[in-house]
Amino acid sequence: MADTLVNVLWIPAGLSCDGDSVALTSAMQPTIEEIALGALPGLPKVRFHWPLIEYSLGGQEFLQAFFKAERGELDPFVLVIEGSIANESIKKEGYWTGFGNKPGTDQPMTLSEWIDRLAPKAWAVMGVGTCATYGGIHAMAGNPTGAMGLLDYLGWDWKSSAGIPIVCVPGCPIQPDNLSETILYLLWQANGIAPMIPLDEAGRPQWLFSATVHEGCDRAGYYEQGDFAEEYDSPKCLVKLGCWGPVVKCNVPKRGWTGGVGGCPNVGGICIGCTMPGFPDKFMPFMDEPPGAKISSTVSGVYGNVIRAMRNFTIQTVDQEPKWRHKGRELTTGYRPR
């Protein structure tokens, strides 16, 4: 299937800041240029229909690819949604979000209408960023739009025409390489050289979101021995300052942000759970010690004192050279000649 042409239809018209599109431009493993130009082994031919890199003047000219996909003239295609999906059924006097106009009219085509038309025909559907996957900031309690993510809009058990569940790559914004790597995997799968993409119960790629922030954090050792930061300029564990790392699935501490550099706890910032379906409501108020952390950090503080004392004793012994390393006429290493 090396000659297969896979179209990627990217709609950034949801409620969002376009931060995920911007983040993708800094991906390095792989870069979006490597994917678009087919510079990696095993890739099919790829054509992106993405406003961020579109060279046309936009408008109806740009939208023709989306209408072709609706008519079945652009198979196979991957539908990418960026931004949360507003509930258009509660906006009788207008609309919340639109992406171009309906043909022959000056009336906007809403995001939800595009999803209704394209998702059933897509080879795969992908949500990029927490807004598109689970609703994100715009879907928090008290919002007037009834915003939601793709999983809520299409259904958590929904599958594409190829039998692929909704692929979710959350983040606020997204970690660039997480997104480019997932796009790469889907294209390999479309070309028949990769198995079904492995996703967890929340639609996230398993190899990227199987471990917690805490498990990959350089500060985790301080937590274990009950040594917690009191201020943000401390290198110690940030749980008491409001970090949700012990329960949040995210690989940023290991992967960094761009080129292996950065990432929230790596630069002294707390984890606020932006890759989780419950974000932001279940992680508020931010910068307060999480409820579970109050118990676990108290317990850790008690046994941590004992652990630190034992480790300090061990350090004092192993921080010295063995006694047999000395100059003299006698061999004291314990060696016995035959």
Describe this structure in words.
- With 338 residues, the chain is α/β, with parallel strands linked by helices.
- The protein has helices at 19-24, 32-36, 59-70, 111-118, 130-134, 150-154, 176-190, 206-209, 220-224, 252-255, 291-318, and strands spanning 5-11, 45-49, 77-82, 98-101, 108-110, 124-128, 167-169.
- Strands 2-1-3-6-7 form a five-stranded parallel sheet, sandwiched between helices. It has a two-stranded antiparallel ribbon with strand order 4-5.
- Strand 4 (98-101) and strand 5 form a beta hairpin.
Outline of this structure?
This protein has 338 residues and is α/β, with parallel strands linked by helices. Helices cover 29% and strands 10% of the residues.
> Would you identify the regions where 5 or more consecutive residues have pLDDT less than 50?
none
* SSE topology string: EHHEHEEEHEHHEHHHHH
Roughly how many Å is the radius of gyration?
Answer: 26 Å
What oligomeric state do these chains adopt? single chain
Please give the count of helices.
Answer: 11
Question: Which helices and strands appear, and what pairs or packs with what?
Answer:
Elements: E1 5-11, H1 19-24, H2 32-36, E2 45-49, H3 59-70, E3 77-82, E4 98-101, E5 108-110, H4 111-118, E6 124-128, H5 130-134, H6 150-154, E7 167-169, H7 176-190, H8 206-209, H9 220-224, H10 252-255, H11 291-318
Parallel strand pairs: 1-2, 1-3, 3-6, 6-7
Antiparallel strand pairs: 4-5
